[in-house]
Amino acid sequence: MRPRRDAGPAVVHRLAEAGDGLGTVFLVHPGALAAGVHRTLAEALPPGTGLTVLDLSGHPAYWEAALTGGRADTTVEELADRIGDELDALDGGGPRTLAGWSFGGVVAQALVERMPAGRRPDRLVLLDSIAPTPEYQQPDDALEPPLLLGWFAMYLGAKRGRPVDVDPQLLAGGGTEDGLRHVLAAAAAGGALPADTAPAGLRKLYDTYVDGLLRNNRLTAPYTARPSSVPLVLVTAERSLLPGDRTLGWGPLAPHGLEVHRSPGDHYTMLSRPDAAAVIARLVRPAAPARLAPATKV
């Protein structure tokens, strides 16, 4: 077990301040990459539009789970309530949009359904977020090494700002240690890591990454989501975590409509690529006055 650190990241990151009456995008972020990765989106939004990132990693029970084996002493509902409290404290009126990336979309959708009906946003924007439905709630052992290693390579490339392109055939059917050697070779070839990087150092980063995924998987497994009371807008990456899955399971939770768009990049680089940010910016731009309420425990 890795030791705990003294303090985690902040919850609230104001990446762009809203001009008078121009509105703010509030984006629920689950960590993995630093919240500052959304600065590309802040720059793509119309001038005067605010962007505030609400980082789940600012909540110790969530953040520490990625450092101590992937078991979090919290729930999706509790995280939604905590983010709702932050929104309430930040509420200054004016147009607003609520969005969530990856597991942050699950928490954002839970938050909307815990708001009073008259205080909900007019839509929820989900960025490559997998739906918390029975078909997609998988046991830990369903996350096999070839799948995890492919995701890790995408994550490492986004984190280092250089491509880490691993042939999936090299990962298929293999174990973690062999797979990490292929990832390391690809990272060195793409300039993401020095050629003399110690395998043990990469393994430590991989273990922390996987613990974060297990944490989110374990939080989602017992959670029962309510159908959305507002229309859903889903943006899937060209290289999503689940390639070829157009709706990522959100159809059954979208009785008021599911609008699907495609973004350049993969699950991680969609947050930093200017061409992806241009797609997302059009969809999250606040369009009408709305006031987000604090989460209400039900």
TrEMBL record:
Gene3D superfamilies: alpha/beta hydrolase (3.40.50.1820). Residues 24-276 form the Thioesterase domain. It comes from the Bacteria. InterPro entries: AB_hydrolase_fold (IPR029058), Thioesterase (IPR001031). Transmembrane segments: none annotated. This is Thioesterase domain-containing protein.
